[in-house]
Amino acid sequence: MSQHAVSNQAWLLASRPEGEPVKENFRLVEQPVPEIKEGEMLLRTVWLSLDPYMRGRMDDGKSYAPPAELDQPMVGGTVCQVESSKHSDFKAGDWVLAQSGWQTYAVSDGEGVAKLGELAHPSWALGILGMPGFTAYMGLMDIGQPKKGETLVVAAATGPVGATVGQLGKLNGCRVVGVAGGEEKCRYAIEKLGFSACINHHSDDFADQLAAACPDGIDIYYENVGGKVFDAVFPLLNTAARVPVCGLVSGYSSRDLPSGPDRTPLIMAGILKRRIRMQGFIIFQDYGDRYPEFLKAMTPLVEQEKVHYREHVIEGLENAPQAFFDMLNGKNFGKTVVKVS
């Protein structure tokens, strides 16, 4: 038996971050593989998803979801295989989608676990056919309401949410302008994803380049970054523009208010005068019952390669913290997943 067959490797949340998370906020432990009781099953983690929302769960402030618990495995979505089962609905070998976190094995009573059919790419259930794809689809289609000929701007344009938003916008007749960190990502957005333009937010004249790429203004801005990207977008928003807000990754580790004058009155006046609709949403809280609708729409688009998807694969659970930090800092290219076993 290999050592992984007899031990459960887990990254525990050791402490809450003060600003940017660091390696010391996590602790790697080896534990015995847990025993299962009647009505339970043992899950072996094959794929672990790393997502920006996890940064918020590391804090203990009031939020839409309870904070991750100290000295417990860090939270996260997983694709697992059932190793052994005393649960009537699951058998050994089943592929499942779970929330078993940063560990190689987990015991489950079946709550919150969904069976996956025969998938050519099981890890895609954590990306284009999972939470990020669902977030992209509902935010754009329900709140953004794209119409032919409109201009759609999306930040983090090559990430799992942004890339999907842009491609869906294009399929719905929008002119799509992406924002990404670096020339390579921008080339990919134009050449592979079919965006009309993509602006590198590291450019000194980023705001000017964005304005030049949006001569007719912006009708939909899909917000997942905030910060200087929002600052450049806001003056360009047209009357009756829609702004779905699914994330603000640029500020997740900020502890203080940004310096400079308070621009809230200016922003509020813009929202009023231009009748801008900004709406935040939490995907499973707001749209959980519409997941089947999303799968029905997205699965054929992926199978027919009308929507492209890129993964950033990290080998080995031991590398999860560094991969997480890199993702928060935009060093990933595509959806970050860890191949655990």
From TrEMBL:
Oxidoreductase among keywords: yes
Top-rank taxon: Bacteria
Keywords: Oxidoreductase
SUPFAM superfamilies on file: GroES-like, NAD(P)-binding Rossmann-fold domains
Residue span, Enoyl reductase (ER) domain: 24-338
Pfam family, one: ADH_zinc_N
InterPro entries the UniProt entry points to: ADH-like_C (IPR013149), ADH_N_2 (IPR041694), ER (IPR020843), GroES-like_sf (IPR011032), MDR_fam (IPR045010), NAD(P)-bd_dom_sf (IPR036291)
Keyword Oxidoreductase: yes
Name the record gives this protein: NADP-dependent oxidoreductase
Species per Swiss-Prot/TrEMBL record: Pantoea eucrina
Lineage of producing organism: Bacteria, Pseudomonadati, Pseudomonadota, Gammaproteobacteria, Enterobacterales
